Amino acid sequence: MASSLSTTKEFALSLAQSLMVIIVVLNIDGHCGAMPEAEYDGPSSAILQESDPFELELAH
User: Could you give the number of structural domains in the chain?
Assistant: First the structure.
């Protein structure tokens, strides 16, 4: 799952920067995925990472 998780995190970062929305990386039942934070209504314990494009811009 490590390579799958790292790929998902990279995808989330790219998606956040492209769409300019916060993207969450999720782990549900051993499967990872990414989706806009505004559309996620599941448990917060499933969120592994948030990619905020506005915080990323300030870091550079």
Answer: 1
Instruction: Classify strands 23-28 and 47-51 as parallel, antiparallel or unpaired.
Output: antiparallel
Flag whether 41 is in a domain. Answer: yes
Say if 42 falls within a structural domain: yes
Q: Phi then psi for 35, rounded to 5 degrees? A: -160, 160
- Contact between 34 and 24 (Cβ < 8 Å): yes
Residue 49 resides in a domain = yes
pTM for this prediction: 0.83
Dump pLDDT digits (tens) for 24-43.
999 989 899 999 999 999 99
Amino acid at 19: L
